[in-house]
């Protein structure tokens, strides 16, 4: 395959990220599988990225994620500076066949504004599409700029203009799904795990309250704002509460965290994260928003851990109730479902992940979308007589 793709991961974290990093983990999972299919990848990220690629371009030496807690007028130029570097690169060369963009809002706006002489663009939507209504509601990228979702449910809630630019959805993947059906099971512990950034939409306060009421041990694993370790958050001053996730943790979650029934362990990465996840009785997703993608869901299935969740967003697409997890629309029923999670067979979870959520499955789907978009953007326009 002769195809060169500029993969725009953005300026916030390195690829792969040092711990938590949703979009950067998606890119780190996708790129090796694309390269195995013969796609040449130019990665636009930060200088500290270590993912093997064919070329790398960067404006910032390291990730700028910590700056996100600062006032807008101090950080608003970060993503723009990164995109300006991408645009300079596209102007300076003619060998980029397609841009695959993952930068929220400003990536789509900037690459659309480049006009018809720029390469085709596929912009992947990783987030809540109720945001940015003026941008999404007025999008006009013609045949050159298209978008894809990470679930059908996400796209179903998109503004009309965004849906008209959509080429479909591609579910997220995990390297853990490779040969997952052949991986031997591990002994399950008693703990239940909530894995992900601690924020109101993820519902860690509900999980902690249920754990205390129903009586199951709960581990919360993930950062609170820019703080990846409990000691770092404890040492932070009052200004830390300017971050909404820090404020949510202190106001709604901390009251339940007793170090015994409910523990917050901060960000857990690599083998430690996998062992914690594989040994869990279940992973719990007490969602208060329409989850668009669900990386942690497919990771849980790949490691043979049943999913217990509120049936919102992508969850009904990823989890089969009664076979790979237990779903409900009732928050109060979640506690009872956690106690019933032992009825779900871990081998079924691993088989499902191996069939649907490998990097190769995701990469083949994206290559098909790249091909579709390139054909659209090069098709001759019929002139009216």
UniProtKB/TrEMBL annotation:
Domain Glycosyltransferase subfamily 4-like N-terminal: 20-133
The protein's name in its UniProt record: Glycosyl transferase family 1
A Pfam family the protein falls into: Glyco_transf_4
Domain Glycosyl transferase family: 188-348
Molecular function terms, GO-annotated: glycosyltransferase activity
UniProt cross-references to PANTHER family, sorted A to Z: BLL5217 PROTEIN, GLYCOSYLTRANSFERASE
Alphabetized UniProt keyword annotations: Glycosyltransferase, Transferase
InterPro entries from the UniProt entry: Glyco_trans_1, Glyco_trans_4-like_N
Native source organism of the sequence: Micromonospora craterilacus
């Amino acid at each position: 395959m002769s195809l060169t793709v500029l993969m725009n991961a953005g300026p916030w974290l390195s690829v792969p990220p040092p711990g938590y990093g949703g979009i950067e983990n998606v890119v780190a999972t996708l790129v090796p599988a694309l390269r195995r299919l013969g796609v040449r990848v130019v990665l636009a990220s930060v200088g500290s990225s270590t993912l093997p690629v064919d070329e790398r371009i960067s404006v910032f030496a390291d990730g700028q994620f910590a700056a996100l807690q600062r006032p807008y007028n101090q950080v608003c130029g970060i993503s723009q500076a990164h995109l300006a570097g991408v645009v300079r690169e596209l102007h300076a060369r003619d060998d980029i066949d397609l841009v695959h963009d993952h930068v929220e809002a400003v990536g789509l706006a900037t690459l659309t504004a480049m006009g018809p002489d720029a390469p085709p663009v596929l912009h992947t939507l990783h987030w809540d599409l109720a945001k940015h209504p003026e941008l999404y509601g007025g999008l006009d990228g013609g045949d050159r700029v298209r978008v894809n979702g990470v679930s059908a449910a996400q796209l179903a809630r998109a503004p009309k203009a965004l849906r008209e630019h959509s080429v479909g959805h591609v579910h997220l993947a995990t390297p853990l799904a490779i040969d997952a059906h052949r991986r031997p099971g591990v002994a399950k512990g008693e703990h239940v795990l909530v894995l992900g950034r601690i924020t109101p939409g993820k519902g860690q306060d509900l999980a902690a309250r249920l754990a205390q009421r129903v009586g199951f041990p709960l581990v919360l694993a993930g950062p609170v704002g820019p703080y990846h370790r409990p000691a770092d958050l404890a040492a932070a001053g009052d200004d830390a509460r300017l971050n909404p996730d820090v404020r949510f943790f202190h106001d709604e979650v901390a009251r339940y965290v007793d170090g015994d029934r409910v523990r917050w362990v901060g960000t857990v990465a690599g083998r430690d994260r996998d062992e914690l996840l594989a040994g869990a009785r279940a992973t719990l997703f007490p969602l208060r928003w329409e989850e668009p993608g669900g990386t942690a869901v497919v990771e849980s299935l790949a490691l043979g851990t049943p999913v217990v969740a509120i049936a919102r967003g992508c969850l009904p697409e990823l989890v089969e109730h009664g076979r790979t997890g237990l779903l409900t629309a009732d928050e109060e029923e979640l506690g009872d479902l956690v106690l019933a999670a032992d009825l779900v067979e871990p081998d079924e979870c691993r088989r499902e992940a191996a069939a649907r959520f490998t990097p190769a499955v995701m990469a083949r789907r994206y290559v098909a979308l790249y091909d579709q978009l390139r054909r659209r953007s090069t098709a001759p326009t019929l002139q009216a007589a």
